[in-house]
Every structure is written in structure tokens, then in C-alpha cells.
């Protein structure tokens, strides 16, 4: 097996991975950097983020307000020291992107424009029309081309981390083109491989969002944190889950039920605000968890509109007018027309909540370091934790930048800490074990199980039992079913036995990652007997700070369900309080 | 809207380990009319033939992974609607790129060309982050915004007859990206990019057929960009050779 020696290996080349790579290259041009991704960088799912990135820049805003919005939005499950670091670094990172050429939308005087977003008290979301993630990703990718020390390994799939002597020292990866395994020996590894929304059938996430980075760390002994918190975005196209940005509501779009009522006022987010004059942090600019939960109640009451794709409510943007829609929401208009055959300029658009984001992920401290020395993580795959029980829209794009860079700086500190020499034989043995694991998939003769079949059962299980509202009984069922699927997965055989660009193999590996992640979601949710943020239990309807102002830590076991431990939330200056999104508040 | 209909999906297959040359394989796929061709491919992968290989991810025309030739035209699989086609749809890998396997092409040539034009901001003036943003008016942004929309899907390379004939040609997307940065009010790197863009393999190879702009799913209009680059490069030439006393 070919051995590739490098200083820092990064798994994932989306926003966080690219930002980390650039920070490494800028800080020390002599470092050898291996940027490893299962897709070409510009295919990464950062490209699909629409609305924008939050960072305090305007004179009417303050770091304290961004802090308060984020911590309250997260239902006090955020680590407040992490949030503090995040909001402080945010403006610098967004300005840095501006200096790298990101085409942020502008005010008439040439300064960067900001737009309102859900759960934010002040307009602080930087945006590039409604293609913010796309522009951030391409700006980072193109900027990364400046640095010869960033060596890309495009279309390599990381299969296992190499952990020896208590330190992470590299990884094994499959070169997809050739089907050959490679051993990357690295002094530090940064995982920046995105979320796992594809555990669910109805999601805004692209096909590649299969939790590979999470599973990679998890299998190497790093706990996954707060995985039960899965964000539903309130406004997805009903037929395929395509995201319509929160910017739709930030610009003034309203949500109505079948009777034309702005139903959010019936769920603690009223009183009604004037149409076309959105008021921050109330009604349509409430947080995502509350909006998605309101949909569920409307559906139970029979107030939704039935469509060929299921029950919906309506997102009405007609009053914004064609000019504003074209200027601020061109992609949204294009997506509605292309994929639904409906024009938001002319008609209300049926929408429903859709799985969007994993608040949970690889457990890291505020320096983006995992408990395994030499292993760092950033972006959606990580849980640092700034998002708590519910992420506010436009914090995640900023998070990629802030903690992508932070992971790079931490990796450099690790490199400078005087590491002992690595033992080649031990690392090679681990890489060989990884190769053997892949080979077993080829050698096994076809049985009853297929990738598509197991995947369908997993998705169905998650949607039925681990959705917007949950019960202990359903979650127990999910735990049992996912455990069963994990066992059956052990008997999976490939149909495609060829080496070159074998996507049957890729999907099998991705399914393994998703099953690992799904089990942590189900078990974490079952054991969290309270309702907080995006985790709502019909059998435990109140938030329980006495017992659950804690992070869930799930530890991997090769055959058994994960072992669960809890970790106190870091509270510095904001004691848990009431999340008030009523317009009547002071 | 949700009517079903059967289509014959004819897909180019090629496995370098077992096939001496590409062949076609036809699948019968029950399609919902609102589907896109990518949905039909996914149906095949999930239900009929797990060995079919193709790239895709976002399913919303922004990641640029799923460019294929669909009935002979370069299209994104996720934006080619079944209802716009008859009952027989042929899917092949993007033209002008070597085939890796099935619908997967080798794209290194494009990536190298994109990198060669220095597609990043080369600032006109040094400015620390602490000094805040570069001011840029909406009008200045509009001068280049269209060219920022390229998703690197490479449909324009598959459509470009010149790229088919002269593989060294930098091609539409790379030149448009150079133009994007040249037009950015914050940038001062045009001279550096011109070395590549105005070379023999650069903009002068373009025969201005305009096919690139016709197939661009994001309306970037690379042909328009190339035309502007040609005009600007011609002016450069005149200034340099006929009016050497005038600074560029």
C-alpha cells in the first residue's frame, strides 16, 4: 500500500476544510498539507447554503446581542465559552472572505449589506444574494489554489483513522478512481466532512452528506455529542426537499395555513406583524425549531393544505414584488419555477419542514480539539458546541470559517509540541486492517441484503420515530431497528466487484457511516427525557435543567449500542431562561 | 403533475476493467413526470442495477456534479426534466472528456485550466482586515457578478467545438473566471492573468460559436466574457505596439 507522508491531513474540502487548509498554508508555508475529499472541493455541500453568514459589523449591533441570540436560540445547550470565541472571531472571518473576493451583496455606499434572519434580534446576516454558501465555497476553493503547499487528493474516501500511542497519526483512504487503498501518515488530522442529513429520506442535504467524518472519529473512540438534535428547516419544497432560504422570510415572506391565517401567532410567536414589514425575532423570524414544531401542530389540527406530496403550509412572497425577489432571492425563484412549476412572484409556494442540519457531531473543545490528541474537527461534522439544541440560521457558515481556522491553529500547536516518532509498522498494520475491512465487502458472496434496501429501512425508521416530535416508545423502536440494521449490515455484500469508481462500494461505506450516526441519534433521543430546542418529546414536554442541562456523549461499540455519558454545559454569563419570541416582549 | 410513464433510459456503460469499448445499456424506468433525468438514474441504481456509476450530489443545480450528455446535449442531470423528453432518453458522459467509467469522466484537465488563470483576488492595494472591507458599490458588483455564478459543471467544455478540436484551449469557464476577477473593482491582477488568458491557447482559440452560453445552466454567458476579453486584449496590443507611450 502506498504511504503518503504529510504534516496535516484534512478530511473534507468544503468550507471548513478549505478554511483550515488556507490557515495552515498561510501560517507556515513549509507545512505539507493533504486535503482529502470524497468529492472535488466545489461539489461540497457548503455550496447549497443560501441565506448567509452571521457576524457583527453594523454600528447598531453588538457582540453581546449575537451572544444572547445564539445561546437563547440554542435553548441554553450551547457552551458559552465557545459561543464567546465564535462571535468575537466571526466579523474578522467574514471580512477576510471579503478580502479574498467573496461577492457579498452591498449597500448603496459600497459597504457590506446585512439581512434579517430567524431568531436574531438585529440584522447581522452577510449575504451574497441567496447563494451565500456557494460563493463562500468557491471563494475559498479558488483562494486555496494560491498555495502550492495544499496538496489535494480529490475523490479519496477516508476509511479509518490511524491511532497509535494514544495519538491520531493519519488515516487510510480509498482512491475512488483506482480502487487502491492509500495510507496517509500525518502528525495531525482535521476532520471537516460535513453532516449526516441523509439518514433521513426528506432532507435538504445532498447525496454526499452521509456522516462519514462523524463515523470516522466515532469508530476511533471519539464520542459523538448531542446527536439527538436534528434541525428541521421550516421551508422545504414538498416534492424533493429543496431548501428555500430563511432569507425568504427575512425579506418579508409570510407563512399561512389553508385558511390564510398566519398561524405562527397561535404558537407564542405573535402578535401578527404587518405583512411585508418583518419584525426581528418574532412571527416568521422566530427560530427554526419553533417554526417547524408549529407546522406539526397545524397538521394535527387539519389546518394544512394537502398537496400531491403531502401536507403543506404556504410561503407567500407575492407582496415582495418581482424586482426584490429577483434581486434578493433569484435562486429561490428559479428553484420554485424549475422544480415545482410555481412562481413565487405570482403564487404562494407550498412548503413543509425538512431535515437540514445536525447540531450534534464530533465532540471537540473550544480549540476544535477532540479528546484524541492530534485529531481535530470543524464544521457541521463537529459539535464544539455553539449551536446547542437549535442552531440559528446563518451561524453555520460563519462556524465553518471560525472553527476551520481554529482547527488549523490547534493542529500547528500540536505539531510544535514535540511529538515522538511514529511507529511505521503499527500504522501500516492499522491501514492493512482497514483495507481488509473493505476487501471483506468484495469477498462476501451476495446474500439477502442490499445497500438500497437497508438504506430505505434506516431512512424510514428515522422519519417515523425520530422526527420533529418524539416519544419514548417510538425512539425505543428506532433504537432496536437501527441495532438490527447494523447487524444485518455486517452481512452486506457488493453487487459491483470492480475497482474503478465503484459507487456501489461508496454507497455501502456511506451506509455504514449513516447507521453509526443514526444509532447515536436514536439512543441519545430516547435517553434525553426532556424537551429542548429541536428535541421535542411528547412524553416529556418540559425542559429539564435539573437533569438535562448536559451534553450527551455517545461512545462507539463495534456490536452493541453506544454507551451514553453526560457532560455539563459550560455556562459563563447567561443562566437558562425563557425563550421568548413573542412580539409583545420588551 | 404526478403522472407516471415508462421511459427507456439508454445509458452509456464502460468499465475499463472488463470492457474494451463503451456500450449502451437500456433500462425501463417508471417515471413520475416531474422527475429529472437524475431521478431516473437513481431509480436504476437503487432498483435495477447497482453497478451503474455516475456523479451527483445536491440535486438543485448548484454543486455541478451531474453534467451528462442527454440526447446529445450537455445538461445537468438534475435540471433535465423528464417531461421535456419523449419516451426514449439517452444519457452519455460529457463530451470531450475521457471516460473514467460509465458516466464518470476524467476532469483534471478542466481543474488545471481553472487553476492556471489565477482565479483568486490579487488585491490592488494591501489592506489589513482591521481596516474593514473594501468598498464596492452595487454597480461595481454588477460588473462581474454574473461571472461569479459558474458552478464548474463543465457543460460549456462539452459544448465547445474548439475544445473538442484543440484540447489545449483554456476554454469558456476558465477564461470567464479570469474575466470575473479582472472586472472586480478590488482586483489588480489582470496583467498576471493575461499571460495565460491572452496566449495562443487562451482567448484567441475561441471561434465564437457561442455554444457555451447556450448550454450554461447558470446563465453566466461565457461567450460574452470571452468577447470582452478579446476586445480588451486587442486594445492592449494596440497600446503596446502602436502607442507605446500610453500606459496600459
Helix content of chain B: 25-40%
Name the CATH class of the largest domain in chain B.
Mainly Alpha
For the record, the count of structural domains of chain A works out to: 2
* Neighbour order of strands in the largest sheet of chain B: 2-1-5-3-4
N-C termini distance of chain A: 65 Å
CATH superfamily of the largest domain in chain A: FAD/NAD(P)-binding domain
Which range does the strand content of chain A fall in? 15-25%
Task: Write the CATH homologous superfamily of the largest domain in chain B.
Answer: Alpha-helical ferredoxin
Which structural class is indicated by helix and strand composition of chain B? alpha+beta
CATH architecture of the largest domain in chain A: 3-Layer(bba) Sandwich
| CATH level 1 class label of the largest domain in chain A | Alpha Beta
CATH topology of the largest domain in chain B: Fumarate Reductase Iron-sulfur Protein, Chain B, domain 2
So how many helices of chain B?
9
- How many helical stretches of chain A? 15
The largest contact between protein chains, plus residue counts on each side, is: A-B, 62 and 63 residues
Keywords summarizing the entry:
heterodimer; A: 586 residues; alpha/beta; FAD/NAD(P)-binding domain; Flavocytochrome C3, Chain A, domain 1; seven-stranded mixed sheet; five-stranded mixed sheet; 15 helices; 19% strand; globular; B: 248 residues; Ubiquitin-like (UB roll); Fumarate Reductase Iron-sulfur Protein, Chain B, domain 2; 7 strands; elongated
Amino acid at each position: 500500500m502506498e504511504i503518503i507522508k504529510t504534516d496535516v491531513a484534512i478530511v473534507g474540502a468544503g468550507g471548513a476544510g478549505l478554511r483550515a487548509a488556507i490557515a495552515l498554508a498561510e501560517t507556515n508555508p513549509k507545512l505539507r498539507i493533504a486535503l482529502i475529499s470524497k468529492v472535488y472541493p466545489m461539489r461540497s455541500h457548503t455550496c447549497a447554503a443560501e441565506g448567509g453568514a452571521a457576524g457583527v459589523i453594523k454600528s447598531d449591533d453588538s457582540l453581546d446581542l449575537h451572544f444572547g441570540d445564539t445561546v437563547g436560540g440554542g435553548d441554553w445547550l450551547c457552551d458559552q465559552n465557545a459561543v464567546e470565541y465564535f462571535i468575537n472571531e466571526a466579523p474578522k472571518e467574514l471580512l477576510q472572505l471579503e478580502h479574498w473576493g467573496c461577492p457579498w451583496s452591498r449597500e448603496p455606499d459600497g459597504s457590506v449589506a446585512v439581512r434579517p434572519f430567524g431568531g436574531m434580534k438585529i440584522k447581522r446576516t452577510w449575504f451574497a444574494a441567496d447563494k451565500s454558501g456557494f460563493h463562500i465555497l468557491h471563494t475559498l476553493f479558488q483562494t486555496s489554489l494560491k498555495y502550492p503547499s495544499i496538496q489535494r487528493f480529490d475523490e479519496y474516501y477516508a476509511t479509518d483513522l490511524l491511532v497509535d500511542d494514544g495519538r491520531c497519526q493519519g488515516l487510510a483512504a480509498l482512491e475512488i478512481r483506482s480502487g487502491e487503498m492509500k495510507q496517509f501518515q500525518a502528525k495531525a488530522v482535521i476532520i471537516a466532512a460535513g453532516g449526516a442529513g441523509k439518514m433521513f429520506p426528506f432532507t435538504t442535504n445532498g447525496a454526499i452528506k452521509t456522516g462519514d467524518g462523524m463515523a470516522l472519529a466515532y469508530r476511533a473512540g471519539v464520542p459523538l455529542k448531542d446527536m439527538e438534535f436534528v434541525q428541521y428547516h421550516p421551508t422545504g419544497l414538498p416534492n424533493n426537499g429543496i431548501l428555500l432560504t430563511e432569507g425568504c422570510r427575512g425579506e418579508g415572506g409570510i407563512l399561512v395555513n389553508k385558511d390564510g391565517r398566519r398561524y405562527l401567532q397561535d404558537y407564542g410567536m405573535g402578535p401578527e406583524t404587518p405583512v411585508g414589514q418583518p419584525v426581528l425575532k418574532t412571527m416568521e423570524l422566530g427560530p427554526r425549531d419553533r417554526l417547524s414544531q408549529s407546522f406539526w401542530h397545524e397538521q394535527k389540527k387539519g389546518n394544512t393544505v394537502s398537496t400531491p406530496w403531502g401536507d403543506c403550509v404556504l410561503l407567500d412572497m407575492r407582496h415582495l414584488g418581482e424586482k426584490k425577489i429577483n434581486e434578493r432571492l433569484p435562486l429561490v425563484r428559479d428553484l420554485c419555477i424549475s422544480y415545482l412549476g410555481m412562481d413565487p412572484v405570482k403564487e404562494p409556494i407550498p412548503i413543509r419542514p425538512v431535515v437540514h442540519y445536525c447540531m450534534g457531531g464530533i465532540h471537540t473543545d473550544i480549540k476544535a480539539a477532540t479528546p484524541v490528541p492530534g485529531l481535530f474537527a470543524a464544521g457541521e461534522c463537529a459539535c464544539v458546541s455553539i449551536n446547542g439544541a437549535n442552531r440559528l440560521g446563518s451561524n453555520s457558515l460563519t462556524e465553518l470559517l471560525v472553527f476551520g481556522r481554529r482547527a488549523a491553529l490547534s493542529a500547528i500547536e500540536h505539531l510544535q509540541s514535540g511529538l515522538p516518532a511514529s511507529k511505521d509498522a503499527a500504522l501500516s498494520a492499522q491501514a492493512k486492517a482497514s483495507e481488509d475491512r473493505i476487501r471483506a465487502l468484495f469477498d462476501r458472496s451476495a446474500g439477502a441484503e442490499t445497500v438500497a434496501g437497508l438504506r430505505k429501512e434506516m431512512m424510514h425508521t428515522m422519519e417515523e420515530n425520530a422526527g420533529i416530535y418524539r416519544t419514548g416508545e417510538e425512539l425505543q423502536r428506532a433504537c432496536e431497528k437501527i441495532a438490527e440494521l447494523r447487524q444485518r449490515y455486517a452481512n452486506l455484500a457488493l453487487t459491483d466487484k470492480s475497482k474503478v469508481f465503484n459507487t456501489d462500494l461508496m454507497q455501502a461505506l456511506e451506509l455504514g457511516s449513516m447507521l453509526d450516526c443514526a444509532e447515536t441519534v436514536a439512543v441519545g433521543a430516547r435517553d434525553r427525557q426532556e424537551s429542548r430546542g429541536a428535541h421535542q418529546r411528547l412524553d416529556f414536554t418540559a425542559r429539564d435543567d435539573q437533569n438535562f442541562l448536559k451534553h450527551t456523549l455517545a461512545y462507539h461499540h463495534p456490536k452493541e449500542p453506544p454507551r451514553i455519558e453526560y457532560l455539563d454545559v459550560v455556562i459563563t454569563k447567561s443562566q437558562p431562561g425563557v425563550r421568548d419570541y413573542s412580539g409583545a416582549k420588551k | 403533475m404526478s403522472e407516471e410513464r415508462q421511459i427507456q433510459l439508454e445509458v452509456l456503460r464502460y468499465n475499463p476493467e472488463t470492457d474494451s469499448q463503451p456500450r449502451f445499456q437500456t433500462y425501463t424506468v417508471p417515471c413520475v413526470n416531474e422527475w429529472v433525468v437524475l431521478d431516473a438514474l437513481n431509480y436504476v441504481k437503487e432498483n435495477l442495477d447497482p453497478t451503474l456509476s455516475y456523479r451527483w450530489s445536491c440535486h438543485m443545480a448548484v454543486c455541478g456534479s451531474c453534467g451528462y450528455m442527454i440526447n446529445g446535449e450537455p445538461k445537468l442531470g438534475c435540471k433535465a426534466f423528464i417531461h421535456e423528453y419523449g419516451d426514449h432518453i439517452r444519457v452519455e458522459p460529457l463530451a470531450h472528456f475521457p471516460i473514467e467509467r460509465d458516466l464518470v469522466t476524467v476532469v483534471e484537465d478542466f481543474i488545471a485550466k481553472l487553476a492556471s488563470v489565477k482565479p483568486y483576488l490579487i488585491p490592488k492595494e494591501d489592506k489589513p482586515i482591521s481596516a474593514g472591507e473594501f468598498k464596492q458599490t452595487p454597480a461595481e458588483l454588477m460588473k462581474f457578478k454574473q461571472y461569479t455564478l459558474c458552478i464548474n459543471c463543465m457543460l460549456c467544455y462539452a459544448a465547445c467545438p474548439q475544445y473538442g478540436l484543440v484540447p489545449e484551449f483554456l476554454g469558456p469557464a476558465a477564461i470567464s473566471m479570469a474575466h470575473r476577477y479582472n472586472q472586480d473593482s478590488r482586483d489588480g491582477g489582470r496583467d498576471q492573468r493575461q499571460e495565460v488568458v491572452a496566449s495562443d491557447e487562451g482567448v484567441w482559440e475561441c471561434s465564437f460559436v457561442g455554444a457555451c452560453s447556450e448550454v450554461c445552466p447558470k446563465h453566466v454567458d461565457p461567450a460574452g466574457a470571452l468577447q470582452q476579453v478579446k476586445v480588451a486584449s486587442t486594445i492592449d496590443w494596440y497600446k503596446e505596439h502602436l502607442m507605446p507611450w500610453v500606459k496600459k
